[in-house]
Design goal:
5 helices
Length: 74
Amino acid sequence: MGYPENEAERKRLEASSLKDLNQLTKRSWEELVEQLPTDTFTKLLQRKIVMNAIITNGTNEEFIRLLKEKIGKK
């Protein structure tokens, strides 16, 4: 079972390329926040309505934890 012989090698190469691309592009929230320009992140932290909406309604626990840490909330 699987891909036909003439397609199998191409599929293996594509899968390998995709894996490499994912390692280069997919970052944790912490890595992304660290790469943001400081003034951009500071502006986000100062917008209380935005911060409260993210903390109250957000579903990404890692990002919420990071934001709370940055603004000094527990």
